[in-house]
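hi support,

uploading two proteins for the ticket. first:
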Amino acid sequence: MLQLSLIIDGCMNFTHYLQELQNNLTRGSERTHYPALKNLVDSGMLEIITTIEEKGNQAGIPDFTVRKNDNLVGYVEAKKNRGKSR
């Protein structure tokens, strides 16, 4: 049952993420979408924490720094879709 619960929670979190993106599509820059992506990544049960535009690291200032148990996992650069909408 726990595995099914994790799948359902993950789907609900992703659905919420897509709704947030849709609500913000016409506003702002790519930074407008940072909170939605941070919430999606942080909401998993993987103990992953993201920091938006963390300063003082060796990678410059990436959009997100991803850590698990205070260990660096990687960086994320988010880009706003500049293509035509359907």
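and the second one:
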Amino acid sequence: MAAPARTGQAPNRPLPASRPGPARTTAAPRPLPASFATALAALAAYAAAHGHCYPTRDTLMPDGRNLATWVSNVRYAYHRGTLAADRAAALAAVPGWVWRSKRPRRRLDTGLSRWAVGYPALVAWMRARGTIPPVGAVDAAGYRVGRFARNCRQHRDRLTIEQRAALVALPGWRWDVSAARRKDRTDRLEALRAFVASHHHLPQLDAADPAERVLAGWARRSHIGIAGELAAIRRTAVPDTWLRRYRLAAAGDTSKSTVEWMSRQRAALRAGTMPEPHRALFGRIRGRQEQRWYQRVEQLRGLLAAGRHPDESAQGWLTRQHRRAANGTLTAEQAAVLAALAGEVAAFRAAHPRRRGAVDCQRPGCTARIQPPARGRAPRYCGPACAAAARGRPAATSPAARSAAALFRLVPALERVAAGQLSGLPALTRRVQRATDSLAGTHPGPPATARRRLRRRWRSRTTGSLRVGQG
């Protein structure tokens, strides 16, 4: 049989009676510590001034301590059960005190008190800018009009019917801003694609065009949200490093690095290894030779606009350029410009047939002027009478006779000069000097082979004309 368990007293033994003595009295409450009393007084003053017991983080007590930190600590101690009862009672006696450790979410105040301030600010903002203010927008008076607009959109069920009608009446007001932002994003992407398709590069922040700068800023701010679309667009544009070098070359930079870069790009263009966006953009750049080429084109077009026929220099340049086009040394753009210019010259010549200058009749003693045709050799005589008279005279075979005949043929031209018609005077002076020198024997004349060739040609012409006249 098990022995009974031992206890502090013997079993079935009566408890001793309490000793008689004076009755016990309740102890008086201990006073609160000075630091706690100071904080409690500061909390009561804050609650009386603001209507709640949630001080901000920058609220300080008279002794320099942070009131918000002290309030947070006593709430934490209360919830853990380590706050003394007298301190808890003192805190509960403060008007507006609650034991919640977090400040409850305030309800949206869209009543007349805040509406009277926020709605006029919203109206002024939208009338000035035409758009709904963003969340962080602040007007000139310092009012957060963007936050007010956001609260009205998010809590439209708390607005009155009159307030909703007032918002809907605003031009540009939308309840769903996300849909508008998606549409704006789509429109901006389309504008970005169109810009790259026409300019072959991404918009730049330092561009002269304001619209390009705005588009470049949007692309930089939104590059995270449009990363996929932006990567696809970037593949169709030239790199920024290539674009910077291209701008230097287009601005006329003549440094060694730029000139070498231009040479490499021209070689790649001729070899066909240049990518399409690079080729389309590089076709717009013009070096010094290209600039002079286009200047010559503009000069020739200026002649046509002034109603003048191309001179020998311009005609020779056109012939050389047609030869270059046939050899393939001109660019596609230059070949197209040259073809258009050739058409303009042909149309001008058809509309304005060129009249050649009048020449003198070569019959001695005749002062008539002969108008040559537009093409071909001009006639030597003004009519059949002069031609028959010229055929009947003997041919001049000796050099002196030829020089005398040349001088005799210059008599009509000299008479015109004496009359004041000075056109062609330098050429006439050279012809007279050459003929007189031949007569005097001081002109060396052409070389022997050339003299023989000229003599044979002269004899064939004169004998042929005499035979025709004799026959």
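thanks. also noticed: Strands lie at 359-360, 369-370.
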